[in-house]
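Sat 14:20. Reprocessing the chain from the morning session after the first attempt stalled halfway. Input below, unchanged.
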Amino acid sequence: IPVGTSINGKGALAEDHPWSIGVIGGNGGKPQANAVIAEADTILYVGTRVNSLITLSLTTPGHESGKTILQIDADPIQLGNNLAADLA
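Finished this time. Tokens:
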């Protein structure tokens, strides 16, 4: 499963790990990493607020993307806060 990180999560998985696609989003994100997110049918966000920086101003994925969005966070207030999650 491809793994992308936010700029704040960079280093959580080594950039040269076979599963790593690098940083996603608009803040340090790599175009090829954002392309993987755009093409995915299911996205699992772990420990991120899924804000406009991570989602390229809520365009990848958009609210009406048809993708299955899953979110895990220690703070329940953040679940589905910025992008509706199918399961949080």
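The mean pLDDT is 92.
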